[in-house]
């Protein structure tokens, strides 16, 4: 087993582990966001009830409750934006994984000598190359989407 093949295999395992760790971190954060959403909903519901039921309370108290409610809405919007970014990151990770798998398959076909390739091998190689281009284009679309989103937020 040549050294370069071992190196490629090791690098593939390392990048797979990095993707796995990132996916776990994203999943944890999505779960945290879900819990925070529920907490914000509960707080918002309480504040709305206070605002509706306590018509006789002082105006400054109602203003304070309204400000708190607006703060909760802003916080929820920020969390929704973060959740959206994380979902894009999940899609990007899936495409990265798909690209690595296709790279590996393509490399196995390309390492085969041309004289030993069957017409089926050549057809499979072309199909994998086509799929690889599609995955790269999808990743490019995601990156453009993120960039547009970032620019619109500025």
From TrEMBL:
Coiled coil: 23-57
Record's keyword annotation contains Oxidoreductase: yes
Segments crossing the lipid bilayer: none
Keyword Membrane: yes
BMERB domain sequence ranges: 13-154
Keyword terms, alphabetized: Coiled coil, Membrane, Monooxygenase, Oxidoreductase
Annotated SMART domains: DUF3585
Major location (coarse): membrane
Family matches, as PROSITE patterns: BMERB
GO molecular function: monooxygenase activity
Pfam families: bMERB_dom
Source organism superkingdom: Eukaryota
Subcellular location: Membrane
Xref: InterPro entries: bMERB_dom, F-actin_Monoox_Mical
UniProt-recorded name of the protein: MICA1 monooxygenase
Source organism (scientific name): Alaudala cheleensis
